[in-house]
Amino acid sequence: MSHRVLVTDTLAESGLAILRTAEDVELVYSPGLKGEELLREVARSDALITRSGTAVTEALVRSGSRLRVVGRAGVGLDNVDVDACTARGILVINAPTANIMSATEHTMAMLLSLCRNIPEADASVKRGEWVRSKFMGTELNGKVLGIIGLGRIGTRVTVRARAFGMRVIAYDPYVADAVYERVSAEKVTLGQLLAQADIVTVHTPLTDETRGMIGPDEIAKTKEGVIFVNCARGGIYQEQPLAEALSSGRVGGAAIDVYEDEPPKNNPLLAAKNIVLSPHIGANTIEAQDRVAVQTSEMVVDALRGSIFVSAVNLPFEGVADADAAPLINLAEKLGLFTAQVINGAVTRTVVELWGVEERLTKIISVAALKGLLTPYLSTSVNFVNAEQIAEQREIAISSTTHPMPRDYNNLITFRASTEREEFCVSGTVFSEKNQRIVSVNNFRVEFKPEGHLIYAINKDVPGVVGKVGTLFGDREINIAEYNLARTSTTGKAMAIITVDSALDPETLNFLRSFREMEEVKQVKL
Domains in the chain and their CATH numbers? Predict the structure, then answer.
């Protein structure tokens, strides 16, 4: 069977060579294809590979009656309608690890350019000037570098900064202490980092938690003359307060590669003082683009051949994974996702236990659970191909066991996650017709659908709690779809899993937590 692969943007020759030499691939290389001709070619193709030049819109997806895979040769997905692809069962893949080294080196390049006034000095010499005293620089040696986000790029920046003689402090509540120890970074709180750092650099994805996390209040906590660096994602820094602090001299300098809106028209940073700007080129190296082309081409071919171990940013569906296994894989991911939103602290160990599940699925289910566990922290950069690797980098011990005989159910998946202070255990099963249920949370036997907006609550096992919750939700016109209760006679505690139509606002959530009977309340989205 031959798979037709359409490439509509320029792609490095190394990637094209993989597609040309694959015996089951027919390559159509048409960079710049537009309009009706593009739609006609997509309709005849099994896979589409693009970079940023082709907008993968809902209309384009609808035209792809044969389309099974969309490959984005890069990290960003701004030009891909992932929801439209998911609705049609089209796998969307990208190359999230290809630019790690390039982004790391660009961070150091931007920092050095700022500290040694390289752009201004270069322009001065080219104007025929020779004013050496004007360009007094700052050494990195002996300075304190504060890194927010100690992941794949953050750890590499740490190693290079220490080679410059810098002291590195880091804030990342989602990595184990062993990660800090491995790269010799000091673990601090965000407040401590802001107060101590001479230079602050961010290396996190843009999520609800990180959006605008460095604003006027955070700037006020820093040293006078602090330097800020952002080669991660636009929107992590609040641009207007940063521009004002640069112009006033409160912030000594900034090196910025990414922006909330790109290109940055009317951006306050464009007119700010003491700033070095670049046009989102952290991944623009020959080596990174070569890796992007190779990784994307390899994964598109693997996906067309039915492999689930590709860099998928949406869930695998029947036709991509084993149709019978897909509900179990999806359930395992939800168990991990549920755990991530409820457990307290950085996870150091995970265990997957399977009853009545084919042994061949152990690996896939374990990776799916890890993907779910890591997704709230890493957004779209975690997927089936890198979840295990990321977990290992974060010093999370991983193990799994299988049991041939079912226990209580025809099949059962148990996911255990441990922090330094607690172990959290959640179990789920798939009934007939692919109906998924979570059936146990810690020592509570409970049954609920793992979908939608959920409230997880632990309270004292005393009368009146359900009534108070119902009254609160009724007064605020919050519709309860399901109210599942469980209790244990040994602890004197009860647990509730409440399914609601939409997420609770912060005020309602805090009000619920204020009930004297409540011991723990978490909001969960599955």
Answer: 1-97+283-321 (3.40.50.720), 100-277 (3.40.50.720)
